Amino acid sequence: MKRPPPKARWAEATNSLRFKITGSYLLTLALIFAPIGAVAYTYMRGDLIHDADEGLRTTAAMIIVRLVDTLHTVGPADAEQAMTIQLAQLEHFGITSSASEAFLRLANRHTQETLYASKGLKHSVLVSRLSRIVIPPPAMSVVDFEGVPRESRMRVLTTVVPNSDDIIQIAIAWDRNETEIESVALRIATAILGLLVLSAIAAHTLIVRALDPVAQIVGHAERLSADHMPKQLLPPPPTSDTEIRDLVGALNRMMARLQKAADRRHQFTADAAHELRTPLTIMQGEMEVALIKERSAERYRQVIESSLEETKRLSRIVRDLGILARSDSGGGAIENPEPINLAGTCTDVVQSFALIADDREIGLKVDVHSNDVVVIGDEDAITRLLGNLVGNALNYTRPGGTVRVSVARDQARAFIKVSDTGVGIDEGDIPHIFNRFYRADKARVNTGGHGLGLAIVKGIAETHQGTVSVESVVGEGSTFTVMLPLSPMDGRATPR
């Protein structure tokens, strides 16, 4: 078997349920973890900036106190020199040394002339960056970033020295903190990625296990054919998952129904072929004998009459097969639903068989217990149902016997009973007599039937949402009972 190209294999994999469930699961986790990681990163960065700003404000407050005290001890002309000396002393004692990565700058607020700068700010580029910061109003401070990331970026606090025209700027190097924040972000991203990978592996493993029975079902289904129809698609699954167990059970029940339908189809085909073969064989044999040599006109007439009888028999078989086929494919639908008064219909059917019953010396009676037994259905079909039951009873009743048709009702159902005093049915045959082409051994004597009459009766009854049943005693007779739901109109049909 030729292996499909990579593109086709990828398309098949991405369309699989495993891929879709795993992808949905990972997407959900990513949508959960990504905001969590972003919030964690933002919180840690904000917390680091907050701590740095608090440190800058504390240092600025201390320096402002020192400078204000210095201004109180000197005159205005010596104020800037005195503040410069004070800042140098603070740097000398390590408060703002470059080792702590904190720097000071004293500048004129109007001209931006630098009066004092820590050793780390001697470079003109750093000083020019600090000089670009907006000067805040007196008694206020501004904290901002200055510089390019990874290139001497600083966090700077700028405030005005009280009672002077100068500003003081306190800066700390931010590159190290930025590197630390990026390291934390990388660790968070790595952790999230690792969780997603582990989750993908775990999810894929669980999904493959969960769908393994489905794969088994697919494998068994691929091996099915018209010649290989097992009774069940899969054995009961060892898994305790309710959904898989229900799926396997439903498929097994479906297979049982399909197998039963296939068995009926095979049996029906074989029986139909047998029933059709018999009259065709008779016709062929008689015609071949008639053609061997010259025959008399009377003999030819006998052959033609015999062939006509067999042709009529073939027509009845084909007609009944058509009725059963329509019953199978109609889904229980009634072709021409109308109110039917069963009392009148039964009376008409009994009258149509009166001459046959007289010829056979069989008593044929009808008992109508109620004249308002009305059902909804196809009157032609109901007439055929009654005709088949009455004809069947006459066929199996000996001369001198009796066939009785009765109609009754209760609150919701109509009952039609056809009883006879005929040969009866063996107990072992009763479960099969409504099967197509089935005839019990006793039924094979002098009946002329082809085994479809009772199958048609059952099909018509079921199409009308009813049932048919039989009670029989060998040597005493049989009683067939048809039960049909009453019409909601009940009694409003015109009695026939």
Written overview of the protein:
53% of the residues lie in helices and 17% in strands. The protein folds into three domains: 19-182, PAS domain (Beta-Lactamase, 2-Layer Sandwich), CATH 3.30.450.20; 242-329, Helix Hairpins (Orthogonal Bundle), CATH 1.10.287; 338-485, Heat Shock Protein 90 (2-Layer Sandwich), CATH 3.30.565. With 496 residues, the chain is α+β, with helices and mostly antiparallel strands. It is rod-shaped and about 160 Å long. The two termini are 72 Å apart. The protein has a five-stranded antiparallel beta sheet, with helices on both faces. The chain has a five-stranded mixed beta sheet with strand order 7-9-10-12-11. The chain has a two-stranded antiparallel ribbon with strand order 6-8. The chain contains eleven helices and twelve strands.
Give a short overview.
Helices cover 53% and strands 17% of the residues. It is an alpha+beta fold and 496 residues long. It folds into 3 domains: 19-182, PAS domain (Beta-Lactamase, 2-Layer Sandwich), CATH 3.30.450.20; 242-329, Helix Hairpins; 338-485, Histidine kinase-like ATPase, C-terminal domain (Heat Shock Protein 90, 2-Layer Sandwich).
